[in-house]
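Researcher: Let's do a round of design. I'm pasting the structure tokens now; please hold your answer until I've finished.
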């Protein structure tokens, strides 16, 4: 590392290339840039040490720059072993003096060692994407809990884990569920993942989607986005869903709906987006056709039962970057992308910066809100206040040159009255 900033990254000589990537993303993140300008003047996060466990991308780098501008002392590690952009990690250290502990392709031991190094920062605040950092803090680094004021959580899987902790009485500090902001999960999950998951599949395989049978596991906001984008490129989409209301919605949206076994028989590309485990597993692989492609757009690499697939296979080999072929006893080949981890970050660059602009604006404003209210919050999971969520949407519209109307006084009075009738 350099003389002043600690860290553990792949290669500091990549820093200049990372700086270009960060600058390119910044030009597409005007909302966050406006917040950074205000933060630099007001310093609302001064005195806070923040340990962040996020995907180390160019967009995340601009969030880190914003928090540092606001006065925070920030350390960053990766929330996924395959999601780090090594040049960005190097640039954060060399050009911005922000410690980073992340290397693309790191093994499990290195991944958790890096989380531990981020926690060595003795944070007042945690920023998480999947709750691995918070989980480690509550299990193996409990001596640090007394100093933690609160945290934020970026993704659906993390919010689920944190709510389970809160329900069990295990959560020791308040966490703001940034993922629950409408400007995050309606746009980041649907439009961001919808595009970037497809991008990752295409980069890893170079397949033609038109005419392909694509099975999407899950019809939440991520699944909706993927199904829509795949259909838009000419794919024939089948949705697998356990929630009857979402399954009905998928059918009404024009998609074929089937159970996992039926989809396994007809599918050619399988994309998971559930946040749960083993959507397709040992009972399904023998049903899949030769050349089947498995891609995960959920958080952890257990949405496919990869242990079962390995057990059923006679050989494995990498046939393309981020594409592993599993040879079956009958000669069929099943291909797993990005080791079953997030395909959009493992095999591509993640969400477009234009979408992450809103998500990370929510993060920055969520931290500012947490600073103002932490003393009055109980250990629980809190949503972003609606007013902040709408502020981000208004700022985004302004940067897009879109003007909308507000209510007239007469309309506001009508909306808040009960006397008016037929």
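Researcher: That's everything. Go ahead.
Model: Designed sequence:
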């Amino acid at each position: 590392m350099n003389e002043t900033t600690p860290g553990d990254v792949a290669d500091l000589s990549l820093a200049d290339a990372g700086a270009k990537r960060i600058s390119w993303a910044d030009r597409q993140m005007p909302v966050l840039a406006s917040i950074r300008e205000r933060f630099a003047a007001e310093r609302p996060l001064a005195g806070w040490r923040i340990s962040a466990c996020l995907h180390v991308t160019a967009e995340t780098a601009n969030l880190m720059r914003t928090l540092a501008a606001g006065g925070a002392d920030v350390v960053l590690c990766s929330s996924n072993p395959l999601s780090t952009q090594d040049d960005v990690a190097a640039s954060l250290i060399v050009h911005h003096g922000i410690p980073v502990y992340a290397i693309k392709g790191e093994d499990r031991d290195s991944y958790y060692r890096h989380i531990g190094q981020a926690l060595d920062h003795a944070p007042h605040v945690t920023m998480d994407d999947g709750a691995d950092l918070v989980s480690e803090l509550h299990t193996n680094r409990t001596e640090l809990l007394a100093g933690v004021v609160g945290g934020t959580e970026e993704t659906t899987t993390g919010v689920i884990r944190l709510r389970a902790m809160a329900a069990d009485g295990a959560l020791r500090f308040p966490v703001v569920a940034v993922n629950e902001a409408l400007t995050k999960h309606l746009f980041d999950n649907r439009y961001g993942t919808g595009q970037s998951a497809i991008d990752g599949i295409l980069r890893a395989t170079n397949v033609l989607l038109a005419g392909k049978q694509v099975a999407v596991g899950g019809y939440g906001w991520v699944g909706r986005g993927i199904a829509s984008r795949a259909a838009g490129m000419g794919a024939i989409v089948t949705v697998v869903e356990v929630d009857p209301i979402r399954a009905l919605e998928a059918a009404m949206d024009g998609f074929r709906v089937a159970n996992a076994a039926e989809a396994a028989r007809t599918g050619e590309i399988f994309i998971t987006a559930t946040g749960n485990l083993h959507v397709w597993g040992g009972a399904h692989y023998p049903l899949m056709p030769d050349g089947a492609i498995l891609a995960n757009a959920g958080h952890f690499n257990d949405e496919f039962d990869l242990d079962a697939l390995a057990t059923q296979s006679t050989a494995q080999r990498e046939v393309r970057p981020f594409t592993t072929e599993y040879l079956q006893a009958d000669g069929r080949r099943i291909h797993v992308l990005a080791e079953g981890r997030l395909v959009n970050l493992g095999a591509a660059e993640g969400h477009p910066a234009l979408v992450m602009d809103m998500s990370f604006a929510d993060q920055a404003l969520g931290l500012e809100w947490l600073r103002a209210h932490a003393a009055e919050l109980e250990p629980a999971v809190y949503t972003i206040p609606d007013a902040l969520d709408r502020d981000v949407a208004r700022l985004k519209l302004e940067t897009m040159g879109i003007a909308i109307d507000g209510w007239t006084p007469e309309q506001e009075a009508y909306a808040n009255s009960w006397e008016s009738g037929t």
